[in-house]
Amino acid sequence: MLTGRGVCVAVVDSGVNATHPHVGGVAGGIAIDEHGVERADYLDRLGHGTAVTAAIREKAPDARLFAVKVFDRSLSTNMASLVAGIDWAANAGAHLINLSLGTPQQVHEPALRDAVERAAARGTLIVSAYEDGGTRWLPGSLPGVIPVLVDYTLARDRYRVTAEGGVTRFHASGFAREIPGVPRERNLHGISLAVANMTGFAARAAESCGDRSLASLIQVLADTSS
Fold it and tell me: Residue 18's CB: how many other CB atoms inside 10 A?
């Protein structure tokens, strides 16, 4: 059974509560503030990054996870911090970057395209939202990214693959790991969790993927889809 062993995943988000029982610790991390200053405090004060990390851990329990905190008091940041987070993760040797975030603003495409290309040059692939509610997101809709869409009809242990316009797209559940006594609709859910669920699947696939290139990883994911 594949568990993500030997695969390093960076979660660029609001940090992580590493002691949460659904997370079970992380290998390390960093916080990058709105001025690009790096700090050691990657504790999650919003809960979003922890939920995302927990979804990845569930599917790839043996992956090495790193927290890259770019959100602090709210789920917003600037483009410089986001790009710095992507660069930090790639430089740290991450095989995958989970970006449960994005922007519809096309003005940011050049900066994000460059960040995707720099990451790829270091062997780092990004998993991010392709489209949600009719809105095309960046960087998830850029070439070189593993694009994700949400599908609430899917079980959390399943994903499906479609192709449109020559682009292979991945659909995953938008629900987080269950919390006892809390209806899943009241827990965190949405495209962010679909991305995280898909990153977990990708981490498992990367374990068995020889060169871990985008083409190879997409092929393994397509071959093993539900």
Answer: 19
Q: Give pTM, 2 decimals.
A: 0.95
Fold of 8-223: Rossmann fold (3.40.50)
Residues 6+ apart with CB under 8 A from 65: 8, 9, 10, 11, 16, 23, 26, 27, 53, 56, 57
List the one residue out of 210, 203, 214, 222 whose CA is nearest residue 3: 203
Sign of CA dihedral 172, 174, 179, 185: negative
Q: What percent of the chain shows pLDDT beyond 70?
A: 97
Cis amide linkage into residue 104, ω under 30° from 0: no
- How far is CA 141 from each of CA 69, 95, 130, 132, rounded to the nearest angstrom? 23, 19, 5, 11
**Residue pLDDT, tens place only, 196-214:** 999 999 999 999 987 888 9
Above 90 in pLDDT, residue 177? no
Rounded CA-CA distance 201/135 in Å is: 24
Helix pair 191-207, 214-223: axis angle to 10 deg: 100
Going by the DSSP 8-state scheme, the letter that residue 135 receives in this structure is E
Instruction: Please give the Cα distance from 26 to 89 (Å, whole number).
Output: 14
Residue extents of the structural domains in the chain: 8-223
- Please tell me the distance from the alpha carbon of residue 193 to that of residue 143, in angstroms, as a whole number: 22
Rounded to a whole number of angstroms, the distance between the first and last alpha carbons of the chain is 16
Mean pLDDT for the chain overall: 93
CA distance 146 to 192: 14
pLDDT digit string (tens) for 87-119? 999 999 999 999 998 899 999 999 999 999 999
